[in-house]
Write a structure and sequence with these properties.
homodimer, globular, 221 residues, mainly alpha
DNA sequence: GTTATGAATATTGAATACAAAATACAAGAT
DNA sequence: ATCTTGTATTTTGTATTCAATATTCATAAC
């Protein structure tokens, strides 16, 4: 008998696959906010029937990415300023909590990993590579979230950041704000290294509040 | 021409109605955690076809009330101790935030309303009417949440409390814990009246932490 | 020209039909 | 008797069909 464990054959329901694909398309901005999503069209595009597509839509609607209006179809949810004003304080509170929890649970190896990402992120900042900076930034926040050891929290945070991500605000962040964000990250790393949960919570909350201001500035111009 | 506006004829999709009904049944404990939900059976019970039922299930699964396993159906999500340990700190953080926001926005009339509920709640405590106490308690928290003027926050909080509500822990709250909870509510009302956001945030967070302990005590006996 | 009306068309909602997978069960092998 | 193995049944996943509603567009009235 073999010791090897055969990898299970990957088979998943169409509605899952569809929900993932559509979620990705919405979050990444491939489908514009407000865009009408006609069932027939999407079915042809994905080569599936309406049943699994409609099931996927219900999921996305529950996640707040899509708006279903009875008898008149489905549209990508718009992102209003009010939405951002609502979402960011929540994200701030959740990040603050995850910071506190992370300080209790994080290992030295995880901190080292974050420090590594942080240093690479700073280099991207110095090089003015905003796209790469943003990516590393996200990874750092993700690792802190993982260190909190609270999957429910991680999932909620992920869901919220998916919603606001579409704002695509980073594209026009002012030099002043960018430099400030980097400075904040420096302090975040410090607090995390010292495992100072209270301080990290405050830093992350403020960091998110500033991010909201950045987004709003970008959107109102 | 009449000034009266005719009430719109209420027509809603079956999947909405089904999701609401099933959600209620799960949250109120009419469907036990872990219970298998066979499509055929539910369809007959509600007198609908499988299509809208399945759509409703996708919604409930996204909300975390139900667990879908590919090709082998649907079951009411179980509530583990780990789930509670995850959910309560999040609820604490969200309540803290809503407390802070509420202090900024709440009107005198709203505070008066809460004070009224609070006093009635205390009377129920003195009378040992736990069921009524619990109901008023919920209403107070709900009003604070509304006063925060953040629908996204309210919705997330509602969703989380729906999940943990099934624990039905209040049924066996010790006299000591109950008295403590009432004392906490007294201070919560004070802070709210003084519109002391920071203090209210701390009180609500601690209140939730204590609630978690109550639940865990009730479940482990 | 603009607005109102109604038929034709398209789209969504729900039920049914069909396909694929899982479960239950019986017969045979060990 | 227990464990396989194969078959029947049930259940789930997806496609298709039918029905209800909304939209479009042409026509007519003003």
């Amino acid at each position: 008998m073999s010791i090897e464990i055969a990898a299970p054959i990957q088979r998943r329901p169409l509605h899952n696959e569809l929900a993932d694909r559509l979620r990705h398309m919405i979050v990444e901005g491939e489908l514009a906010p407000g865009e009408k999503l006609a069932e027939k069209e999407l079915c042809e595009q994905f080569g599936v029937s309406r049943t699994p597509l409609r099931e996927a839509m219900k999921v996305l609607a529950t996640e707040g990415l899509v708006l279903l209006t009875p008898n008149r179809g489905c549209a990508v949810a718009k992102l209003t300023l009010a939405d951002l004003d609502e979402a960011f304080p929540i994200m701030g509170a959740l990040e603050a909590l995850s910071g506190e929890l992370a300080c209790r649970h994080i290992t030295d190896a995880e901190i080292a990993r974050i420090r590594d990402l942080h240093e690479r992120m700073v280099k991207k900042y110095e090089a003015g590579a905003l796209r790469d900076y943003f990516k590393l930034n996200e990874q750092i926040h993700q690792l802190i979230l993982n260190a909190a050891r609270n999957p429910t929290l991680a999932q909620m945070q992920l869901s919220l950041s998916g919603r606001v991500r579409r704002a695509r605000y980073m594209a026009n962040m002012s030099p002043a704000r960018w430099s400030r964000a980097v400075a904040e990250h420096e302090k975040i790393l410090e607090a995390l290294s010292a495992r100072d949960g209270k301080r990290l919570a405050v830093l992350l909350k403020d960091h998110l509040a500033n991010k909201l201001q950045t987004v709003k500035d970008a959107l109102t111009e």
